[in-house]
Design brief:
CATH superfamily: Vaccinia Virus protein VP39
CATH topology: Rossmann fold
Helix content: 40-55%
Number of helices: 9
Radius of gyration: 17 Å
Shape: globular
CATH architecture: 3-Layer(aba) Sandwich
Number of strands: 7
Structural class: alpha/beta
Length: 238
Amino acid sequence: MRVDLTRRATELVELMDDPECDPVLLDATYARFATVNRLVSGWRSLYRSHIRPRLDPSRTTSIVDIGFGGGDVPTAIASWARADGLPVQVTAIDPDERSVDFARRRYAEGPVDFRSAHSSDLVARGDEVDIVLSNHVLHHLDPAQLAGLLSDSASIARRLVLHSDLERDRLAYAAYGLVTLPGRRRSFLHVDGLRSIRRSYRQQELQEVVPDGWLVERRLPMRLLLSRRFDATTDGRR
């Protein structure tokens, strides 16, 4: 059956979002995120092009990852920065306690502080950090939640916001489905990944629903990067 990719399939719900889902399969899904992100998410390139130029060897740069999932992306960024001799303090937040529990177990000796929280909790406390980022979060959100995330991100970040996500694309859908099919019974990765692609935006769709000041760029492979940069003349920020 041919899947309709002309629109966002926002009615689809990912299996791992079910609070009653199989905990063994959920842990297996979290564990496989590291491989998927290493292959397709492009954070190594984003670190080099967007994050590293904003890190200062003479001071600690604060970073918050919103909705960290398996915890591999913030852990990798913290490790890359430290390998480059650039001090960072990385905090990762996710409202799902199951995600927090997994990341704390998997990266118990790692450099990231994993916490259970919403971005709105940081705003309510008056927290500010240098860089805010997220990976594969945007397609989960309804319009009100997306607006809230972007408002919270702009309130929290002093220098840079990066929200990276999938782009809905037929080739990406076909390729992902084929590659993940053999392991479809060992985790939620196959079904949820396909649903994520169907829920995701195309570049123009996302640009049309974000406020002024936000830039949507297309990146390979089949990625969208939503970003906002602050400088001395933007909203009075440093």
